[in-house]
Amino acid sequence: MEQPHEMRFKGLGVSEGIVIGQVLRMHDGARHVYHWRVNVADLEAERLRFRGAVQLAKTQVVTIKKQAEKREKQITDEQANAEWAVEVVGDRLLSLYSEIKDEYLRERGSDIEDVMQRLLVALSGVQPRHRNLSEDAVIVSQDLLPSAVAELDLEHARALATDTGGWTSHTAILARGIGIPAVVGLRDFYRRTRTGDKIIVDSTRNEVILHPSPGTLERYQAETLSRMKRELAGEVKESGPLRTQDGVEITLRANVEVPAEFEGVEKYGAHGVGLYRSEFLLARRGVTVSEQEQRLAYEEVARVAGKEGVIIRLFDLGGENLREQFQEPEKNPALGLRAIRFGLRNEEVMRTQVRAILVAAANGNLKIVLPMVADVSDVRRAKVIIQEEANSLAKAGRAFGDVSVGAMIEVPSAVFMADNIAKVVDFFELGTNDLVQYTLAVDRGNDEVADWFRTLHPAVLHSIDRSLKAAFRAGIPAIVCGEMASTPAYAVLLVGLGARDLSMTPSAIPRVRRALGGIDSREARTIAEECLSNETADDVEGIVRERFGKLWPHLFPPQSLPEHRQTHSQGK
Ligand code: PEP
Ligand code: MG
Predict the structure, then answer these.
(1) Active-site residue numbers?
(2) What are the pocket residues of ligand 1 if the criterion is a CB atom closer than 6 Å to any ligand atom?
(3) 36-45, 158-167, 344-353, 498-507: range with lowest mean pLDDT
């Protein structure tokens, strides 16, 4: 058979490294259920399909068979397709459960959801989600949702390559967190691959190579070997207080999503967990996780973080996060029922999570941060719920701990109302990923508009400046936890704008520590002020390149400084 030709595809390297491996194609199985009429002649086949699905799911849940076989009648009576039978019967059961007074029994409703979910996955013909990956699997997908990444057998997924995505999409964030290379925005790469194809993912050169020639393979094998040696030799572990050259103390915390990242918290000397993206807890299960399971997860992350504690973000569902599992498709998910809005609309989900956090706080240092609040009314409504749950725990005589409550500042309305919000919360967390997205109206996960996603846009810097000042005026801490904090040059600008507390993917901590430890915060302030007085992102980047290059050439060699690339303008 003729050897396929080597092909190179350009994208955006969002998580560093080089991997030689084999393609594993992965399709995102969204859950869409429609009702269609099945011909009488096909009813038997439909019944068999339903039974087959049940059979497949049986090994996972012992009770499932008993539940499911009762549903066959519906297929015959209503000439319904198997998915519809599952949906209708499941909904009926769920509404019955929601009316049960007894709290424990009511919570069993989540078991019904679990059963439904398993049946629908089985009917879709997709194998159970926890895949056994080969040793050198490179996941190739069109649009890999974070829930899918979170479910991968992370020990074995060696790298990711996707058609869409951007630097701050959650898949990219997770890849960096776990420490596997990733190249996104590869356009129509997925359809050109077959599972088992040889592939090289080279995020340092923003490319992937399909069917590499023997010569290319040899060069890459030599390169990966020498990189490994360099990395092992250069590994530094530092912890303890970080001070700039002029003695200003800066705190560096960790952002975490999944347990695979936990060991990095101690390893890289993080000052506790500044952002726990709790919705990934649901990603791994695919359904609402019970209070008890959540409590155990929060206690575990509290143990990992130690006395510095953990800031747990209430589920940031919707948007790109798990939308396929929890919501009807929305026309405009980023502006839809997401984050705190989802929680306020689905109060039971929020109350269960709040209870789990309060109870876990009896054994660890936990705080709550509210995602994507628009103004004080979102905060007030959430705080009423938190207070009510604390009261009912007290009444029931259950042990729980005090938690302070902060607000994510990540949409323009919150920036404008920051002085008001600061009066009703204990701290701010600045989510720069969404702040850039919403301030500039640029989808953070769409590579088509990546050229407009400009972190150093003056409008973004003004938003950060305004939010930090509001926090200082109110005397509350402000942690910057978006991806901006994990990029050394941007972190210096943040310090120049007055930030003293940053949270980032754990593996970024050493390089940010090195950069901030080598600068004078007063000089950073002068540069930040100059940036604020500029008109465009290009101007700001120009200033950063020039000033940083002159003041700190040892810390910022030219290639480490922001330079705007027209990522896709000249094709491949
Ligand atoms: C952000 O928006 O910057 C943030 C920290 O949250 P996420 O990336 O999860 O939206
Ligand atoms: Mg956000």
Answers:
(1) 170, 481
(2) 275, 277, 316, 410, 431-434, 481-482
(3) 36-45
